[in-house]
Amino acid sequence: MAHHLETATDLAPKIRAGEATSEAVVKDCLTQIAETDSTIQAWIHLDEEHALAQAKAADDLRAAGRPLGPLHGVPVAIKDILDTADMPTAYGSPIHEGHRPEADSTVVAKLREAGAVIMGKTVSTEFAFMTPGKTTNPHNPAHTPGGSSSGSAAAVAAGHVPLAVGSQTAGSVIRPAAFCGVFGLKPSQGMISRAGVLQTAKNLDQIGGFGRSLEDVALLVDAMTGYDAADTATYARAKPNLGAGCRVEAPVEPNFLWFDLPYDDKLADDARAGFDELRGILGDQVESLALPESLGNIIDHHRVIHHYEMRRHLAREFEDCPDQLSDGMRDTLEGAAKIGDQDYADSLAAMAAAKSFFAELFHDFDAVLTPSAIGESPHGLDRTGDPVFCAMWTFAGLPCLTLPLLTGDGGLPIGVQLVGGLEEDDRLCRTAQWLLNTLDEG
After folding, report:
1. What is the separation, in whole angstroms, between the first and last Cα of the chain?
2. What is the pTM of this model?
3. What is residue 250's DSSP assignment?
4. Which contiguous run of DSSP H or E holds residue 417?
5. Degrees (nearest 5) of the Cα angle 41, 172, 327?
6. Euclidean distance between CA atoms 294 and 350, whole angstroms
């Protein structure tokens, strides 16, 4: 098998054992990028010489008998909203084109410590919001790869890299992973530092990743996890080990919950049929429940917090460079100025109430089974899709995972989302592995 098609879980031990070199892996990935990225356009910055120099340094460390990290020599792509000291970071906007951060973001620093080769920067939507970048869907270039982590999801799907980093404020890891047919994982809020990452909504912004397998995304998230005094959302205590969760057998058959959501009518017919079939396979292990009335306005509360905080975080760009903002971003920021302090406070109170509700819910259920998106990736590159099936879980800070299990009528992937309890990310991975095994056996 060509290296660019291998999982990170397979590559990492091969490189550590000397069965493959990081340089050979990176060269193979660069060849795949050269052959396909003129259509996919997943990258905003790629320096082949720098990538190969990192790979050679990784091989030299191994040859010298130095300690090796869990991602030693493995190529990883970074969304262009995470600071990199050796590469530009433009945050998806012409306002910051050519910007060179003074230091790495905490995530990038941790990945380097784990031995990863930082391949380059992948395309983000403008300020990780709604206006699309240039990336297309690797399954069909006439369709969107999703947003805002469009380049990262597409790069993994196209075989450019085995792993990529993204972020999620509404659905920007889960939705593009689903549209591009890869695994995507956003862990519990507070597990991964956001220091050195573009901030648009301090109460919502979270980091996640993309991979070719469940074990891959667990490996990536484990490498990024940790306390950081520079991000007060992180916490100084033990974190779940996601890789261990993938490897342990479920002690009993998991219980799943299916919520009847107020926006279920948005779900495409082919997606609905796929979920009906999946629920039929799981039978009595899935219980349906109407969403409590108190949670019915979560999407509205999410929008209030998102827009209110984004208006403040992007105040300088809005005031100094309004002509370099897209029409959609400028209109959103103008509208956000009308959100009152009391509306914002009410939405924060709703967030606290939602977190309390879900803290109790997962005493009885291993995971919520829910769509990752409305359906297949929509046709056209002028929009990135609707995050409605993701926003609730981001709002509550819960771990979310999308599995590429279904295919739509148009032949494009449809993701199946599992949501777990806060700081029970290992349990979520264990449940997901059980589901994958069960479907394989069936």
Report:
1. 27
2. 0.98
3. P
4. strand 413-419
5. 75
6. 9
As annotated, the active-site residues are 79, 148, 172
Rounded Cα gap, residues 368 and 260, in angstroms:
11
**Domain 1-442: homologous superfamily in CATH:** Amidase signature (AS) domain (3.90.1300.10)
Element (H, E) at 350: helix 341-361
Amino acid at 309: E
Residue type, 301: H
Q: Is residue 274 very low, low, confident or very high in pLDDT (cuts 50, 70, 90)?
A: very high
Q: Which residues pair with 330 in a beta bridge?
A: none
Q: How confident is the model at residue 47 (pLDDT cuts 50, 70, 90)?
A: very high
For the chain, how are helix, strand and coil distributed in percent, rounded to 5? Answer: 45, 15, 40
| Inter-CA distances, 298 with 180, 226, 277, 341, Å | 27, 29, 28, 18
Q: What is the pLDDT of residue 438?
A: 96
In sequence order, what are the beta bridge partners of 197? Answer: 82
SS3 (DSSP) at 107? helix
Domain segments of the chain: what residues? 1-442
- Res 230: pLDDT: 98
Q: What is the rounded radius of gyration, in angstroms, for the C-alpha atoms of the chain?
A: 20
Q: What span, in angstroms and rounded, lies between the C-alpha atoms of 442 and 438?
A: 6
CB 122 within 8 A of CB 78: yes
